[in-house]
Amino acid sequence: MAESAISSLRAREILDSRGNPTLEVRAELSDGSWGWAAVPSGASTGKHEAVELRDGDAARFGGLGVLKAVANVNRVIAPALAGMPANDQEAVDRKLIELDGTVNKSRLGANAILGSSLAVAHAAANQMGIPLYHYLGGWDSYVIPVPMLNILNGGKHAADATDFQEFMVVPTGAESFAHALQMAAEVYHSLKSVLQGRGLNTNVGDEGGFAPSLKSNAEAVEAILSAVEKAGYQPGRDCFIALDPAASEFYQDGHYVLSREGKVLDRQEMVEYYVKWADLYPIISIEDGMAEDDWEGWQLLTEKLGERVQLVGDDLYVTSVERLTKGIELGASNSILIKLNQVGTLTATMAAVRMAQHAGWTAVVSHRSGETEDTTIADLAVGLNTGMIKAGAPCRSERTAKYNRLLRIESELAGEASFAGMKAFNNLKSRPDE
């Protein structure tokens, strides 16, 4: 048996950052090498995502247990992968898809499939004695991503805060990732001071961002801009704003309902809302600005803002090559969000990144609201030179674990490392730094 042959996989139920069950998988190879991975879970999920298998047993974890998915790894996947070479990721992932046999991974569960896929990749990298980012991308993997940090939470991540789900600070003016993280942390702590000064609460949401009860969505942006200045940085030069409205969550009967502001907007009016904001604030990226199946709205948004704002499809594409193909054909955006558990295998995830990059789009590697200490996405962002990563606020260890991993990678690469900075936004024809 080859040294890289898979000898065993073992899954168990663990807890994620929201206190809900998820699973981890350990893969062992014939030479004793091993790899480990844990699977994240989203709160604001697109309806086209692969199926996360839950037990539905109300007597355990309110029905959210994942013992069925664990059993599928231990009893179905493990025997089928035994003896396969771990360093042939495409073959491993193809086998996982064949075993499931459904379009949406509903038989075995995308969580069971992804945990197995990632654990095998980690084991193969360990067996070869190289870091995961080099295993995924080869020796040309050296771009350290710009962090997009969700420092003010709303929507489904924080009740009674804002209509929009995420307000991010993007420290593009940094000299290195370490410097970018320092800047972001300073802005984050300044934001706490700003909110306290306005008599607002500073409890944090699922992703570590503050979750104050605000009168409007604009008030969130203005608070962050005040924090950037208070931290000693210049908005629109050192730091930019990124938004994730998660528009599908407030899309009702063909209209966009901003209950915080008492507004009901059609797609034209919603696009005009964003255009006004882009004129008023230093906004460099908008994710899920339109609903997941409002293709006409996305085309209109891209027509109006696509040359100067990164427009990222998350629920729109769910890391699917098929949906991304349609988006490229329609010119529906200029960027895609990448979430491993939306599609279920490492190979399919990498294919979506490559397709976006080939089209001249950007790809933003992302965490989920329910996270673990697993840091795979940090290596994925570097391995594929995506130039951008979302992992939440610089708070809560399941978030900082990803950022700390990037600090280590930057140190490992030393002089070879290249911090993406504003160059990450190569999809914009009119960039703020030009």
What report would you give on this structure?
- There is one protein chain.
- With 434 residues, this protein is of the alpha/beta class.
- 38% of the residues lie in helices and 18% in strands.
- Helix 12 links the parallel strand 14 and strand 15.
- The longest helix is centred in the middle third of the chain and has 21 residues.
- It starts with 5 loop residues before the first strand and ends in a 15-residue tail after the last strand.
CA radius of gyration: 21 Å
Q: Biggest β-sheet, characterized?
A: 8 strands, mixed, barrel
Ends distance? 57 Å
Strand tally: 16
Number of helices, counting only DSSP H or I runs of 4 residues or more: 13
Q: Which structural class best describes the helix and strand composition?
A: alpha/beta
β-strand percent reads 15-25%
Mean pLDDT: 95
Low-confidence sequence ranges: none
**Strand line-up in the sheet with most strands:** 5-6-7-11-12-13-14-15
Instruction: Give the helix level as a range of percent.
Output: 25-40%
Oligomer: single chain
SSE pattern, N- to C-terminal: EEEHHHHEEEHHEEEEHEHEHEHHEHEHE
Shape: globular
Secondary structure blueprint with pairings:
Layout (H helix, E strand, L loop, with lengths): L5 E10 L5 E9 L4 E5 L28 H15 L7 H12 L9 H19 L3 H6 L5 E2 L1 E8 L12 E5 L6 H21 L19 H14 L9 E5 L6 E2 L2 E4 L4 E3 L1 H14 L2 E5 L7 H11 L4 E4 L7 H10 L4 E4 L1 H4 L2 H13 L3 E5 L9 H8 L4 E3 L6 H17 L4 E2 L15
Parallel strand pairs: 4-16, 5-15, 7-11, 11-12, 12-13, 13-14, 14-15
Antiparallel strand pairs: 1-2, 2-3, 5-6, 6-7, 8-9, 9-10
Helix pairs in contact: 1-2, 1-3, 2-3, 5-6, 7-8, 9-11, 12-13
